[in-house]
Amino acid sequence: MSDGGAPVAGPAHTPPPGFQPERTVLAWQRTALACAAGAALIARHTATVLGPIVLVIFTATLALSVVAFVLGRHRYEIAADEPSRRRDGRAPAALAFAVLALAMTELLSLTLQEVP
């Protein structure tokens, strides 16, 4: 019983074990999709300055985003006790390279753009 209406400290509520990995994989998927959308936007806006090279950069960035999406999904589908479920850093590396490609594309576009 509590004193003066204060809540009683009881056992901590723990969510079912499947929710945290599911939230993590959904976060990886959202991040990969946002990176792919960013690549499409930057490709669209820099195509007039950079020309066909934008298509190559866009394709590479899109591929890296897909790799991160698939790796995040694959890690969730593997059984929790599987040794291959350990964190190996491939998905973060793929997203890091994709974001780097986006930044370099934009910087190259700004550098080559004619100033009126």
Description:
The protein is mainly α and 116 residues long. It is 69% helix and 0% strand. It has three helices and no strands. The longest helix is centred in the N-terminal third of the chain and has 32 residues.
- Helix/strand/pairing class, anyone? mainly alpha
How far from one another are the termini?
Answer: 76 Å
Mean pLDDT: 81
Global Rg: 22 Å
- Which outline best applies? elongated
Ranges where pLDDT stays below 50 over 5 or more residues in a row are none
The proportion of strand residues reads under 5%
**Helix and strand element order:** HHH
Give structural attributes:
mainly alpha, 116 residues, 0% strand, single chain
Short description:
Helices cover 69% and strands 0% of the residues. By secondary structure, it is mostly helical. Helix 2 packs antiparallel against helix 3.
Could you give the topology of this structure?
Elements: H1 19-50, H2 53-77, H3 90-112
